[in-house]
Amino acid sequence: MEWYRILGSIITLIGSIFLFLGALGVFRMPDLYNRMQAGTKATTLGTILTLLGIGICHYEWIGQILVIIMFIALTNPISSHALARAAHFKGIPLTKGSVADKLKEKESTEVEVD
Amino acid sequence: MDRIIKVIFSTGILTLFYFIWTGTTDLYNILIIAFIALVISIIYNRSLFKPMLSPKKWIYSIWYVIFLFIEIIKANFDVARRVVSPKIPINPGIVTVKTKLKSAMGRMILANSITLTPGTLTVDIDEDILYIHWIDVTNIDEKTATEKIVANFEKYLEVIFG
Amino acid sequence: MNITTIVHITGFALILIGFWGMLTQKNMIKIILGLAIVETGVQLVMVAFGFIDGRTAPILDSAVELSKASSLIVDPVPQALVLTAIVIGVAVNALMLTFVIRLYQQKKSLSINDYKDLKW
Amino acid sequence: MIKRLIPLLLVISLFFILLKVATNVAPNYDLTGVAKTYAEQGASDLGAMNLVTAIVVTYRGLDTLGEVTVLFMAGTGIALLLRRKKKKNDSGIKNRAASEILKTGSKLLVPIITMFGAYIFINGHLSPGGGFQGGAAIASAVMLMFLADSSFKINHKVFVLIESFSGIFYVLIGVLGLVILGADNFLDNRILPLGTFGTILSAGTIPLIYTLVGLKVGTELASILDNMKGELE
Amino acid sequence: MANLPEILLQISTYFVSAGIILATLRLIIGPSMADRVVALDTFTVISISLITLIACMSERVIFLDVGMVYAILSFIGVVAVARYLEGGL
Amino acid sequence: MELQQGIFILMGLAMIIAAVLAMHVKDLISSIIAVGVVSLFASILYLLMQAPDVAMTEAAIGAGLSTLIFLYALHKTKDVEEEND
Q1: Residue D233's pLDDT is what?
Q2: Same-domain status, B33 and B62
Q3: Which residues of chain C make contact with E63, given a CB cutoff of 8 A?
Q4: CB contact under 8 A, F85 and E40
Q5: Cβ–Cβ below 8 Å for E69 and D137
Q6: DSSP designation for D90
Q7: In chain B, positions 94-153, which contact chain A (CB-CB < 8 Å)?
């Protein structure tokens, strides 16, 4: 019985559950920013765990898996930041019941620059 | 001189990436790739970053990665709890926090870490003020928010990118 | 239902949807998008012609035994053809979009109904 | 109504044609004809692990030359149609600058993406990928620089130079096959010795050709994107 | 018990597929285009996991190259759409 | 191989839905995104059909660069396309 295969597949299973929860969050949350919260965090950890589990199952692949994990951990927050910024600039509102929106005050006084 | 060190460092990093990716032991392969990495580093020599050379920074980086991973796991249980509960418990808003970090790289890592940790998402950055979407706003005051959100990371990042 | 049939049905459905879109849409960019969908469908069907169930990719690394390669791999020829088709497809799309941009600069309109000058 | 009816009839007729195709195709169970030959002899003949690469670069090398030419002509046509007129920014709207995080991140990522593009086309005979995919990766690295900094400009002279020289060398390697190995050996990869099977130098000129194709495609696609981006003087 | 890892990986594949379905639903119903882009982002990240799972099930390491290309291009695509939305293209 | 067939059917259905969406929605940018999604699903299908080269090409050129080119063209012809989402 290869114990490392079982360990790897269990990690993969946990990761895929997180991926599913992230997608569920994207589906259920009330507004764009909350969706992005769920989408970014859960999918990042889910992808990391899924890939890591497969890297443990096939330990000879671990180098490539690590590079992909590093790339995803670096790019996923950047892309969701860019998207959140664009959406806020475009005027997509926060959901009802939001407490504060300090960015709006800044954007209304901002001069467009290049 | 500074630029030459940057180019050499970046060549080394790119070759290391290639080595990790392929796991090759063929000498010709490594030589060819080192040459290509050198060409790429020379092409982008204007936008390379300063290398971190002191061992203290390396140790702190490793600690930081471990700390961040624990925070990410916490964040995920937080997200999971919010997503599966039938009446989604949120209290969102956008707040400002202030950072002490000066280097561009440090700010980027800080913003990414904030995005990955519980309940917060960086929306915009303006010099040293970060605009953060917080899923569960407890206090809209800048000082308290700074204390709650960024202080933990800054401890490490100030040393690493100091 | 085997896999080749599934992919064929998908590809043909994409061809029909894209064709329908190309014929009925008024916006020129959308017509080009329809053509892109048709291209994807055709390429899917072409790759499915070379697929053999239970075989592996035509890259003979350590996972494929070299002496028995011809009984282990799928057909590489359609893949090579599709590779060409995708690259040409994007070049053609870019060229058509350039024409659209030029037309737009002339008349400030994207609707295909505004370009009927050549009707004789 | 009639405008909807004719497309509907056309689509329905196409549906019946495709139905005929779909019902008549049986899944195949073995390689046939030329594919069998390629599978049996490709590896030992050309030293390429990736049979698709072997077909694209060597067996069907002329097709690839034509493909590169088509891409070149499309790029030239786009450049011709969208050539820059020195005029002011007519819309009067200035671009919004990218955020600092994206700028820093792109500085960090662009060398890595370029390196990965180089990996794809150099290892074209060992792993999936090749000149076209690697070129696309390099073009997307250039694209990321455009996105992070909207005032970024590529150096057109250098790009044109790289593109033309890689095209010339590509044809020269093809002609070299004719000279060294005799007639009907245009674009043969065996003008360099084949090394050990499975190493980077194992496939004669395939890595060289794919490097040239990658540079050419990368610069061409980047030029197309730059031309589509247009002027903002 | 011998094929417990395979069973677990299959269950993972079901979860990942369900995630893709949910992201696709958000893509379809998403009220604004920014929501659609969020769905696209989520969907591509999940797809990378699916690609790795396919690689694991086919036992071919070469499929990971495809995953990396997918990651690079999806990142650039999402950033491009974001920059288009904020008018900085 | 029940699982494999299931993934094929799922991908095929998703592709068809995305294609219909691309032709049906009114605003162009959603349409472009939907076509990009069709390409991305196609890429996974190629991978399942054991064609990694084609999958890579589709992901890099068909989904990535093609979307960018469409976005640029849309940007250049933006004056009429008002926001109607």
Answers
A1: 40
A2: no
A3: 57
A4: no
A5: yes
A6: S
A7: 94-96, 108, 111-112, 115-124, 126, 131, 133, 135, 137, 140
- In sequence order, what are the beta bridge partners of B120? B134
- Asked if residue B32 belongs to a domain, the reply is yes
Contacts of A104 in chain B (CB under 8 A): 94
Contacts of C14 in chain F (CB under 8 A): 15-16, 19, 38
Distance from the Cα of residue C64 to its chain's centroid: 30
Domain that holds residue C55: 3-114
Highest mean pLDDT among A97-106, B150-159, D140-149: D140-149
What value does the mean pLDDT take over residues C90-118? 85
A83 near E82, Cβ under 8 Å? yes
Closest of D175, D208, D218 to residue D72, by C-alpha: D218
List the chains bordering chain C where 3 or more Cβ pairs fall under 8 Å.
D, E, F
Report helix, strand or coil for C109: coil
Facing D109 at nearest CB: one of A75, A82, A113: A75
B59 and B38 in one domain?
no
What residue type is F46 in one-letter code?
A: Y
Residue B48 lies in a domain: no
The DSSP string of D112-172 is HHHHHHHHHHHTTTTSS--HHHHHHHHHHHHHHHHHH-TT----HHHHHHHHHHHHHHHHH
Closest CA to A72 of B101, B103, D140, E47: E47
Q: Which domain holds residue B35?
A: 2-43
What CATH number is given to the structural domain containing C61? Answer: 1.10.287.3510
B131, β-bridge pairs: B96, B124
Q: Are strands B120-126 and B93-98 parallel, antiparallel or unpaired?
A: unpaired
What pLDDT score was predicted for residue A98?
A: 65
pLDDT at C38 over 90: yes
Distant-in-sequence, close-in-space partners of D161: CB < 8 Å, separation ≥ 6? none
Same structural domain, B63 and B29: no
The whole-number pLDDT of residue F81 equals 44
Q: In this complex, which of D52, D70, D228 lies closest to C91 when CB atoms are compared?
A: D70
Read off the pLDDT of residues E44-82 as tens digits, 9 standing for 90 and up.
888 899 899 888 888 888 888 888 998 998 899 889 888
Is residue D115 within 8 angstroms of chain A, CB to CB? no
pTM for this predicted structure:
0.90
CA distances from F56 to D122, D146, E81 (A): 15, 23, 21
Is the CB of residue C53 less than 8 Å away from at least one CB of chain E? Answer: no
Touching D (3+ Cβ pairs <8 A), the chains are A, B, C, E, F
Residue A95 has pLDDT above 80, yes or no: no
**A100/B95 touch (CB, cutoff 8 Å), yes or no:** yes
- What's the mean pLDDT in C19-47? 90
| All chains having 3 or more CB pairs closer than 8 angstroms to chain B | A, D
Q: What is the pLDDT of residue C41?
A: 92
Mean pLDDT computed over D85-113: 74
Is B34 found in the same domain as B78? no
Category of F51 on φ-ψ map: left (φ > 0), alpha (ψ -120 to 50) or beta: beta
Residue of A nearest to B120 (CA): A37
Dihedral sign computed on CA atoms, order F30, F35, F38, F43: negative
Distance of CA C62 to the CA centre of its chain: 32
Q: Where are the domains of chain F?
A: 3-84
Distance CA A42, CA A39 (A): 6
Q: Per the domain annotation, does B67 fall within a domain?
A: yes
Residues of E in contact with D120 (CB under 8 A): 65, 69
The reply to whether E43 touches chain F by the CB within 8 Å rule is: yes
Check whether residue B92 and residue B121 sit in a common domain: yes
Window D:135-154, CB contacts with F under 8 Å: 136-137, 139-140, 143
pLDDT band at F85 (very low <50, low <70, confident <90, very high): very low
Q: Which residue type, as a one-letter code, is found at position C41?
A: G
Q: Which of D137, D225, D230 has its CB closest to that of F68?
A: D225
